[in-house]
Specification:
The complex is a heterodimer of chains A (about 250) and B (about 425).
Chain A (H helix, E strand, L loop, with lengths): L1 E7 L3 E8 L4 E9 L2 H5 L1 H4 L5 E5 L16 E2 L2 H12 L5 E5 L4 E6 L5 E6 L8 H11 L3 H10 L11 H13 L4 H20 L8 E4 L8 H7 L4 E2 L7 H8 L4
Parallel strand pairs in A: 1-4, 4-5, 6-9, 9-10
Antiparallel strand pairs in A: 1-2, 2-3, 6-7, 7-8
Chain B lengths: L3 H6 L4 H20 L8 H9 L4 H9 L5 E4 L6 H6 L3 E4 L8 H4 L9 H11 L4 H5 L2 E5 L3 H10 L5 E4 L7 H21 L6 H24 L9 H10 L5 H21 L7 E7 L8 H7 L3 E7 L4 H4 L11 H15 L9 H13 L4 E7 L3 H16 L4 E6 L6 H13 L2
Helix pairs in contact in B: 3-12, 10-16, 11-13, 11-16, 14-19, 17-18
The chains are: A alpha/beta (about 250), B alpha/beta (about 425).
Chain lengths: ~250, ~425
């Protein structure tokens, strides 16, 4: 029996096809959450016996996905479930997504103890980094590599992505090094993440989930700003995987 | 029914008002009419909302021949005294996003939506309740309101009650004086004498309203609750507008129907039971309840000003033999029994929440604060600690009246419910 987990995120759609018999992942895929991709999603995803939906679009796919009784579960629950499969020894999860940042604490049995999300705006999410890279006119991986090279990260204080844009533009005009601006952006993201984590003490590494986890050297930057993270190759698919695994139990 | 003439007499901006009223049916449909509901007694309350700027406004205009119409934003304003002065007390418009941009023309954006909407409602001349009132009674329950009264005083006749910050003897004394002063002010301003009998009559009417709401809320302690949370919220919200005697009768009838329904209903729904606490939810702010109850849980009680705080505890009339006694009892009831976050410390609220959790067999707390509602946002941390010590899961959400964050709110609340 094949189970499809579909995570319709704000920036990308992820799916994982899971085989219940062999308890293994058969296939996985990803595409951008564009209107055109959402329309043709049924033609892209592989055939399946059962389907679990999560992510921002989980309630709104009825018109395109004509499947009977999908299981609909929030991404918090799905991330916790998926993360436990790929890294059972992680109790702190950080999903830096396209639209929000989630910090999830689970206990040894995999049960969610608590979770926190950033407020509505995209400041401090993956989208924030994307936008800032665009302003500096570099690819996102180059942006990270530049930030790693910086020795004197700039200060970016704005609460809001749009205000941060103005701040970066003024940094560009005052001839700050592009590396330092890039590092400043990451620093502000990490400081914001720390504020979200708040008083929850993280004495061990946090498992990083979401799009940011696919970037090389990102962990060096986290380490520099005193947040220990680790990544797994399936980090980006934990939501989709969790949506499938929920149907396995 | 065409109210144009009435609105013109109230100097309402007809065009803007049409836009406002056009938005309400969609929201009302979405929150109330699309769900299953089998209580006949609710049709009265639905009809009040459907005609929210119609029949009741007409009644208030007619009432002005007999006495004043007085507006307020807060449950600290004692309705008993207004009734004793032959007045009618109405809650003013402050619950819709429509008014926020108007408010932001005058006050800063970083202010709670309730104050911005309240100011915007008056400034835009689209709230008939605002247009009909002879007086607005303000109260200094937060910095935002305290300063907002200065803005309001340019647009409407105002009287302001000061509030203590502490429930100390000195605080109690200040409040007693404020209650007494309000009484004298109303007597003088509207040339009505307030005596023992008229005060007693006012107290009895408000106590009866509180008893009716208490009776209705008691049925929500049952599992499953015979009335949905959003319907109960609506009923409480209407209590701020409606004719007090008719309202009391209608709530009694609804409570009775709920009692009967509960006794014939043996099946046990397994829905998780939620307590909502935090900032007040003024009509038509039904957002949090709507999201919770379409995420598979039931709201069974609200610890806020549009919930239990509105009606818990009556004004005592025992052993009162003079007007002074009654006024003292009124001030005691308000100051001692309403645990607003404007007080520091505010231990009473923690105790209230714990005892409500027990009485209503609550599985989890949704702490809902309006954006920039500083006192409630700060107090969330204390409540979170108390809830944790008592093993009650709690989630804090901060939101305004707009619908831009519905997706995020739903994700949080669904995840919270899934994990209960």
């Amino acid at each position: 029996m094949s189970i499809l987990g579909l995570d319709i995120g704000s920036r990308s759609i992820k799916w994982v096809l899971y085989d219940k018999g062999s308890n293994s992942i058969l296939e996985k895929g990803i595409l951008d959450s564009t209107p055109a991709n959402l329309e043709r999603i049924e033609g892209i995803i592989p055939p399946f016996d059962q389907i679990g939906l999560t992510g921002y679009g989980r309630h709104n796919l009825n018109n395109v996905l004509k499947v009977k009784s999908p299981k609909i579960v929030s991404e918090i629950t799905c991330h916790a479930k998926g993360a436990r499969y790929i890294e059972p020894e992680s109790y702190y999860l950080l999903d830096i997504g396209g639209q929000d940042t989630k910090f999830i604490m689970v206990d040894k049995s995999g049960k969610i103890i608590d979770f926190k999300l950033n407020d509505r705006c995209s400041a401090g999410t993956g989208r924030y980094i994307e936008n800032m890279a665009k302003i500096l006119d570099v690819k996102i991986q180059d942006f990270i590599d530049m930030a790693v090279r910086s020795e004197k990260p700039s200060n970016i204080n704005s609460m809001c992505t749009v205000f941060a844009e103005s701040e970066i533009i003024s940094l560009i005009h005052s001839r700050e090094q592009i590396e330092d601006i890039a590092a400043g952006v990451i620093k502000s993201l990490i400081f914001r993440t720390k504020a979200l984590i708040g008083t929850n003490k993280t004495d061990e590494s946090i498992l990083l989930l979401g799009g940011l986890s696919e970037l090389q050297n990102i962990e060096i930057l986290f380490e520099r700003f005193d947040l220990k993270i680790k990544k797994k190759s399936l980090s980006r698919y934990t939501g989709a995987l969790g949506a499938a695994l929920i149907l396995v139990d | 029914m065409d109210n144009t003439e009435m609105y013109q007499s109230l100097d309402i901006d007809l065009k803007a008002h049409d836009t406002l009223m056009g938005a309400l049916p969609v929201l009302f449909q979405e929150c109330f009419l699309n769900k299953e509901q089998d209580l006949k007694g609710l049709s009265y309350f639905y009809s009040v909302v459907a005609d929210i700027h119609g029949a009741r406004v007409k009644e208030l205009i007619e009432h002005k021949n007999k006495g004043p119409v007085i507006g307020s934003f807060c449950i600290y304003v004692p309705e008993e005294i207004v009734l004793a002065a032959c007045g009618q007390l109405v809650g003013l418009c402050a619950g819709a996003d429509f008014w926020v941009p108007y408010g932001e023309q005058i006050v800063p954006k970083n202010l709670c939506p309730l104050i911005k909407a309240g100011i915007g409602a008056k400034y835009s001349r689209t709230c008939p309740y605002f247009q009909v009132v002879d007086l607005l009674i303000g109260e200094n329950t937060c910095d935002g309101k305290k300063k907002a009264w200065e803005i309001f005083s340019d647009m409407v006749d105002m009287y302001i009650m000061d509030m203590p910050n502490k429930k100390s003897d000195a605080g109690l004394k200040l409040w007693q004086e404020e209650v007494w002063n309000l009484c004298s002010f109303l007597e003088k301003k509207f040339s009505k004498s307030i005596n023992f009998d008229s005060l007693l009559n006012g107290i009895q009417k408000v106590n009866a309203k509180r008893n009716a709401l208490k009776r209705l809320y008691n049925t929500r302690k049952l599992s499953p609750s015979p009335i949905s949370g959003i319907d109960a919220l609506l009923v409480t919200q209407i209590g701020f507008y409606d004719d007090i005697e008719r309202y009391t009768k209608m709530v009694e009838a609804l409570a009775q129907e709920c009692e009967e329904k509960a006794s014939s209903n043996s099946q046990n729904k397994n829905k998780k039971r939620i307590l909502v606490t935090g900032s007040p939810m003024v009509v038509p702010n039904w957002k949090i309840h709507h999201v919770i109850e379409t995420s598979g849980a039931d709201v069974v009680v609200e610890e806020n000003c549009t919930g239990t705080r509105y009606f818990k505890d009556n004004v005592s009339i025992e052993n009162a033999s003079s007007k002074g006694d009654l006024l003292k009892n009124i001030s005691d009831r308000y100051i001692n029994n309403i645990n607003c976050a404007c007080f520091s410390p505010n231990k009473g609220r923690e105790e209230d929440i714990l005892s409500l959790c027990k009485d209503y067999r609550v599985d989890g707390i949704v702490y809902a604060s309006l954006s920039f509602c500083t006192t409630y946002m700060i107090e969330a941390e204390k409540i979170r600690k108390t809830a944790k010590e008592n093993n009650i899961p709690m989630i804090t959400v901060e939101s305004d009246y707009s619908f831009g964050d519905l997706g995020q709110l739903r994700t949080r609340i669904e995840a919270f419910v899934e994990n209960l």
